[in-house]
Amino acid sequence: MSRSSESLRIRRTPEQDRSKATLQAIHSAAASLFGSRGTEAVSMTAIADAAGMTKAALYRYFDNKQALIYAMASDMFKQNRQRLIDTLSENPTSARGKLKEALQEYCELHREEPFRIRLFCALHTDPEISQLEISESKKNAEIWADYILKTQPHLEKKKLRRHLFLMMELVDGLTRVVLASSKSESKLLVSDFVDSFLEGVVD
């Protein structure tokens, strides 16, 4: 593993409740600051102050801000994937309908928690960290493909996964447009987005 990869690892994995609470305080403080100022404008000193700790204590958990962003993004992706799995287990409906429902909820979540879109912007500026997001898109595409193939087993699996992977990769762009639109317009945008990708691929 390269030195830069090592620097993205959390330095101290919390095991005791107190350490877990400290890590959560760091994440919460960073999320609030990132959401209001963006990742570039926020320093480790500001995060430490907001978390109620010294900068030295913060560095015992993370080597640098990129490592903190990586950890927060990893947690966010895990939460998103679990939310997706939960959504797919509820009220079975058409693939198109379920995709539109899930993407609408996803976009609105970013409206409620602005730090999420800031994290995505930060991920895309760092080639090494961006691999995390690409890997996550592939996992989500596989989950969606498996869901769709349950009711449409005749579809070509590899082609379906490719289309869904591209869709997952472009969801960030959709999210930014949705956040700049009214809620009523956002539903139309999400619907058009899904239909354009699934045309000729999913029945």
Q: Can you walk me through this structure?
A:
Residues 20-80 form the HTH tetR-type domain. This protein has 203 residues and is an all-alpha fold. Helix content is 76%, strand content 0%. It has two domains: 10-63, Arc Repressor Mutant, subunit A (Orthogonal Bundle); 65-198, Tetracycline Repressor, domain 2 (Orthogonal Bundle). It has helices at residues 3-7, 17-37, 44-51, 55-59, 65-88, 95-112, 115-124, 127-151, 157-179, 183-198. The protein is elongated, with a radius of gyration of 19 Å.
Q: What is shown here, in short?
A:
This protein is mainly alpha-helical and 203 residues long. It is built from ten helices and no strands. The chain has two domains: 10-63, Homeodomain-like (Arc Repressor Mutant, subunit A, Orthogonal Bundle); 65-198, Tetracycline Repressor, domain 2, CATH 1.10.357.10.
